[in-house]
Amino acid sequence: MAYEPTHPTTPAPLRYGDTVLYPPAVHEPRMLPAEIPPGVQYVTLPDGTRTLAYTAHADTPPTRPVPVWAKTTALLAPTVGGGIAAASAGLAYAAPGLIALAEALWAAVALIAAGAVVAVARPRRSTARPTTHITQHVTATGLFGRANGTVNHR
User: What angle do CA 45, 53, 58 make, to 5 degrees?
Assistant: First the structure.
């Protein structure tokens, strides 16, 4: 394809001191034709510059629709993320109660362990030894009377 600009001349770049405000248009191609990917062509823009661009042709296959699984995944992702965020907020709100509950459970475990230790370490009573019975009789007369009593050891 031969280069045919729509404008006969390219204006010189504007300068502000040493700064170039816009670079001059490049009229020669920078890529070899063999390097250009399929579907890309040189096009001439309205200002006369030539550039590479993708062009649509009749032989280009139509775009495929988005699969249903991709749509479902895209719709579920925010829902799952929101659920995880709500669960973490709930756990953060319930953390003091969960810590207290864990401490209460550890206290219950310690109580059960202490009971087991006492049950194992406690000496058994022998049935050969006689038991001592103490009886006490107290008598009093009147509401503010003195009480008298006796203690009997058997």
Answer: 105
